[in-house]
């Protein structure tokens, strides 16, 4: 059945997301709710904190007594990648906002990224003298700390704005997409400089990340990165004349997920001109003065370290931090001989912020002194304070919602991140079944608004699907990502849509080896699934009620992996992901086949080395939602918590592979999407969820011993 030649082959053209493509999608009146998972993101709960520099620099028992973090953001959504701003542009900003700095003198301005609006965008917090910080007093106990936060917020004299309120379009390139990721903000003269994914790349597996500048005075936005190039982590020189970036350069992204092996470039902040390669292999640049840049890279001995290079000389880079500790994401002081860095030490389970004295060549502890049991990320500094972000934990009395609303680029498509993975909708769209976390046990059902969470299965499971006719939930019972001979079975969970769990019953439908990713036919009579029983992971169809005992048919056959199958609601097609083009390479394309084994063809692929996974049909069978690496990565992976595959984003397309549309823009691994028929209004969310626990992992590939680091060396 699998020997038919492909009859349709479409390699994604990312330029399909043009205005014409959008109009086509809109005309077809796509509607419903798309739910998906992001690795760990639901539990980040990031806020930005800072500490005073002077006690840390003195570093004595008396100077550190009473040292307390000051929280700089308000506990709304996630807030991260802060930057203290300075320079004449602040006066332009104040004038733009009609702020009288004579009567309300500025104390400080901080730019940062927040996802409170449903996507990652730049915000500015403007603080005035005479106000109170969110928390600047020493308090003991969670309740007392929360009360102090509430008092501080009510007394704080500040203004918060988002960059979008200042923008009035993009010069030279058309408008672009404002539903995009913004990251790493800074200021150069009267311009806000930042990374954005607002313009699609012309090629698949090419990052959309580029540096843009928005004039505070006029609101006009211009692109500083050349088309066809991806830039990350911009840093502005003290004069505001130059920008340094970590760039993929002409080489492009080659599938790296740990060290992107970017190069350092510099160019003029005014218009991107005089762009030149500074050095090979470097990331996260930070200026100490007009001639000195610090940056990070993974050294040949396996340890991530900070280096120094002179801009306008031919000197080679000098390693600054020693082996034996990972040091990265540097922030250089412009007022003293020291750096702020994030570290991972062999004797610590946590990422911490430390200072490094450039004269004494020694580290000074920072965050371990005040919050030892949290991960801390991406330091930034001013002449008086050192800032960073971490999970807020119990600092704000909040819960992690089961469903988090994201802004959607399509007017009748609601987009939600679930606190879990493998969501699927009931036939009427009123409920969602999902796995809370692939590393933990259980299958749960919630109402569409996120309320009434019930466990319907207690064992280890992955993958879910809801029968269209009989109200049965199917899942794979057993460990995920195992070999073909591992014991994983398809089970049916009956009466999962009932309010009373006492009516729930179970039936095992398969018998041998590794069976996963069940998807029922629309008439409820059959189930397609992936099985390793032949020695390879191929697709099979079995009777939905009796399982293998009622009949079993092999749908695909070959020495490759066919997986992640989904049966279209109209019954015509089964979509699946396959590595048959290059078995064992890790590259997957999307294929279609009729349930009778005819019509096999490839619908979408992401070049010869890319991934198109987890296809799911729309309720009308005319479109698909899926996850892919089409847009590469959007940020340096070391700057965020652990992501297995940081290139994963959610896309949508017609069933013929045309009209491809990117739905998510972030630095996380997004995956396992599904599509329900009911449009969920975010105002209808129940707001239920768990307390903030900060139970996410730091980058597991940051080895913490010299022996392990040596094992990760590149040959």
How would you explain this protein's 3D organization?
There is one protein chain. The protein is mainly beta and 715 residues long. It has two domains: 315 residues, TolB, C-terminal domain (Neuraminidase), CATH 2.120.10; 350 residues, Neuraminidase. It has six helices and 50 strands. The strands form 13 sheets. The protein has a four-stranded mixed beta sheet, with no helix packed on it. The protein is elongated and about 75 Å long. The two termini are 43 Å apart. The N terminus and C terminus are likely disordered.
Number of helices, counting only DSSP H or I runs of 4 residues or more: 6
Number of strands: 50
Distance between the termini: 43 Å
Q: Low-confidence parts lasting 5 or more residues at pLDDT below 50? A: 1-11, 13-23, 132-139, 149-155, 172-176, 705-715
Gyration radius (Cα, Å) is: 26 Å
CATH fold-level topology of the largest domain = Neuraminidase
CATH superfamily of the largest domain: TolB, C-terminal domain
Q: Please bin the fraction of helical residues.
A: under 10%
CATH class of the largest domain: Mainly Beta
Q: Give me the secondary-structure category.
A: mainly beta
- The gross shape turns out to be elongated
How many structural domains are formed by the residues? 2
């Amino acid at each position: 059945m699998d020997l038919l030649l492909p009859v349709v082959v479409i390699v994604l053209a990312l330029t399909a997301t043009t205005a014409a493509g959008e109009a086509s999608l809109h005309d077809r009146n796509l509607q419903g709710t798309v739910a998906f998972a992001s690795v760990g993101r639901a539990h980040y709960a990031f806020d930005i904190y800072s500490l005073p520099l002077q006690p840390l620099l003195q570093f004595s028992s008396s100077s550190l007594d009473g040292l307390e973090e000051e929280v700089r953001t308000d506990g709304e959504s996630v807030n991260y990648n802060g930057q203290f701003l300075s320079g004449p542009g602040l006066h332009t900003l104040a004038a733009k906002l009609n702020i009288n700095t004579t009567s309300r003198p500025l104390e400080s301005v901080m730019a940062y990224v927040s996802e409170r609006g449903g996507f990652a965008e730049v915000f500015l917090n403007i603080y005035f003298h005479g106000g109170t910080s969110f928390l600047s007093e020493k308090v003991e106990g969670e309740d007392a700390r929360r009360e102090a936060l509430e008092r501080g917020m009510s007394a704080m004299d500040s203004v918060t704005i988002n960059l979008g309120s200042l923008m009035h379009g993009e010069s030279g390139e058309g408008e672009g997409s404002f539903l995009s990721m913004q990251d790493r903000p800074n200021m150069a003269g009267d311009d806000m400089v930042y990374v954005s994914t607002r313009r699609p790349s012309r090629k698949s597996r090419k990052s959309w990340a580029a540096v843009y500048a928005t004039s505070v005075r006029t609101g006009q936005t211009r692109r500083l990165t050349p088309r066809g190039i991806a830039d990350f982590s911009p840093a502005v020189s003290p004069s505001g004349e130059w920008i340094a970036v970590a760039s993929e350069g002409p080489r492009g992204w080659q599938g790296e997920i740990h060290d992107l092996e970017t190069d350092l470039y510099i160019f003029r902040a005014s218009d991107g001109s005089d762009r030149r390669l500074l050095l090979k292999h470097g990331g996260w640049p930070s200026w100490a003065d007009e001639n000195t840049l610090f940056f990070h890279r993974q050294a040949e001995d396996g340890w991530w370290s900070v280096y120094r290079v002179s801009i306008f000389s031919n000197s080679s880079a000098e390693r600054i931090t020693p082996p034996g500790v990972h040091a990265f994401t540097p922030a250089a002081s412009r007022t003293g001989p020291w750096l702020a860095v994030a570290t991972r030490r062999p004797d610590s389970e946590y990422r911490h912020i430390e200072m490094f004295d450039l004269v004494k060549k020694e580290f000074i502890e920072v965050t371990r002194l005040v919050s030892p049991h949290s991960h801390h990320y991406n330091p930034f500094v001013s002449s008086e304070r050192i800032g960073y972000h971490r999970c807020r934990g119990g600092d704000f009395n909040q819960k992690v919602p089961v469903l988090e609303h994201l802004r959607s680029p399509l007017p009748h498509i609601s987009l939600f991140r679930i606190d879990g993975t493998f969501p699927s909708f009931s036939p009427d769209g009123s409920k969602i079944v999902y796995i809370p976390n692939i590393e933990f046990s259980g299958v749960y059902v919630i109402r569409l608004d996120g309320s009434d969470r019930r466990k319907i299965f207690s064992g280890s499971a992955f993958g879910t699907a809801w029968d269209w006719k009989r109200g049965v939930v199917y899942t794979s019972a057993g460990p995920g990502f195992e070999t073909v001979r591992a014991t994983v079975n398809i089970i049916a969970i009956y009466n999962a849509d009932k309010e009373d769990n006492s009516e729930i019953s179970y039936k095992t439908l398969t018998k041998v080896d590794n069976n996963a990713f069940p998807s029922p036919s629309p008439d409820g009579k059959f189930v397609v699934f992936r099985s390793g029983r032949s020695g390879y992971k191929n697709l099979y169809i079995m009777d939905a009620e009796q399982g293998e005992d009622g009949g079993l048919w092999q749908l695909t056959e070959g020495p490759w992996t066919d997986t992640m199958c989904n049966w279209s609601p109209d019954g015509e097609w089964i979509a699946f992901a396959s590595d048959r083009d290059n078995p064992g390479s890790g590259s997957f394309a999307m294929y279609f086949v009729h349930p009778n084994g005819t019509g096999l063809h490839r619908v979408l692929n992401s070049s010869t080395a890319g991934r198109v996974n987890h296809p799911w049909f729309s309720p009308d069978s005319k479109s698909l939602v899926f996850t892919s690496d089409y847009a590469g990565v959007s940020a340096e992976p070391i700057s965020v918590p652990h992501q297995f595959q940081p290139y994963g984003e959610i896309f949508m397309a017609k069933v013929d592979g045309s009209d491809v549309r990117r739905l998510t823009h972030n630095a996380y691994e997004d995956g396992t999407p599904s599509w329900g028929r009911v449009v969920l209004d975010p105002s209808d969310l129940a707001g239920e969820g768990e307390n903030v626990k900060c139970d996410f992992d730091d980058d597991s590939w940051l080895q913490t011993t010299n022996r392990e680091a040596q094992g990760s060396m590149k040959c």
